[in-house]
# Entry
Amino acid sequence: MSDAKNLVGRRVLFIAPRFFGYERLIKAELEAKGAQVDYFNDRPGNGFFTKALIRLDRRLLARKTDAYYRDIIESTCSKTYDHVLIVRGEAISLKMLRLLRQSQTKAQFSLYLWDSMYYNPNARKLLYEFDQVFSFDRSDVEKNSKVQFLPLFYGHEFERSAQWQGTPVYDACFIGTIHTDRYKVLEKVLDSLNARGCSVFVFCYYPSKMLHCLRSLFDPGFRRFSKKYISFTGMQLSDVVDRIAESRAVIDINRPDQLGLTMRTIEAVGARRRLITTNADVVNYDLYNPKDVLLMCRDNPVVEYDFLEQDELPFNPTLREKYSVSNWVYCIFNESGAKAI
# Structure
């Protein structure tokens, strides 16, 4: 499944967000398979306001963003790439994408969406400029025949969790960014676990101190929650791996309108830890087994301790390989015509 011969010696232009090191993980996997990779951030800056303005409406930073992509095109036009992979496609304009295509006429262009198009409307404008498009969200695939379904992935670091043989420190852990109604649902999950005497590790990242202050001002519940759990510094991946290794289960709370399985869900598979999730679409995946995956209601999430007391590790090697970063790269760059998952 993860034959890498088709990438040996190939040149890849890789444009993706800087997001908790996942862009480095993809780049490292491509290079491990023999590719020569040039990476660029998908935005002209990684500060909060640059991200926020692009997300609100990319036209607010159109001039700056187009100038940034012109620089990328000019700095890479002397090279001939075999592949151009763009992740998310939130910042690049249709005009700049077409100029990039004109400068790399021999390259296969691929787009991967790790946020659904519901949260990334710019991607809808770009779809037909790509040779292939993948999304982690089944609803994107159902709405557009151009899009192939390809779930997210876990990195090789999670082998350390899978092979960890110590006594569990926590019954469950939650590690994630706080957005939408996530903190309210998480509070209910924690209440259910605490009522059963469970030990839970909680790490909640918030990307902006200014927005945090505004939200705290108008939402007393958030203000109370944040004093206990919020951090403005992200957790290193190695620490994420360690906390998951020490836990019996991983808690996942998806966005209200998102079907795609989150990175943390797939990492639970890689780490061989049970999954507690609010994502109802999980039942449509081959990783779903009621013994290993507990589906909760967002409004009244209940976690029974019996679910956490099982000793046998979940998720077999064949299933785990399917959701590895190695197989993810294979699905996107395989030139033999194999389809994504």
Observations:
- The radius of gyration is 20 Å.
- DSSP finds 15 helices and twelve strands in the chain.
